[in-house]
Structures are given as C-alpha cells and as structure tokens.
Amino acid sequence: MQFTMRAVRVSCGYAEDEVARYCGVSTETINELEIDSGQIDYNLLSKLINLYGVPLDIIYLGSETDSHQKHRNDPRVTF
C-alpha cells in the first residue's frame, strides 16, 4: 500500500510550514509537491523520508489525483 505525500505528512502530524522550514523550501513548493510528486528532487525526497520516518516504498510518487482514483474503493487505506 502506498500513500500520497500529503497523507503521510498529515498522518505524521506536520503542518506544511513546518515541513517547508525543515526542508529549506517554501510552503508553495511543499503544496505543489503534494499535488504531484512525480518529479521530486532526490535531496528533497530524502529530507522528507527522514523527517517522516517512513520507508520510501510506502510513498506514492506521482499525481495525488491519480493516487486517489487508484485507492478510492480500497478499504485498507488508513491515512
């Protein structure tokens, strides 16, 4: 099961501005990344994984809309 960047952030209890500060980017960058993480910079991805404390394989890299369509009827989604 994979989860969007937004779902992981919210589940970990972080606000966008906290994540942006930690990563050294703007909140706009975090918001754009959460909408579509398909082209994320490796260094930023590494910072996010470290902050969230999750393995890379649970993070869905791509469009948030595509992820929602893929999992909308999956009862196992817990984020």
From TrEMBL:
Pfam entry (one): HTH_3
Protein name: XRE family transcriptional regulator
Gene3D superfamilies found in the cross-reference section: lambda repressor-like DNA-binding domains
UniProt GO MF annotations: DNA binding
Domain annotation HTH cro/C1-type: ranges: 18-59
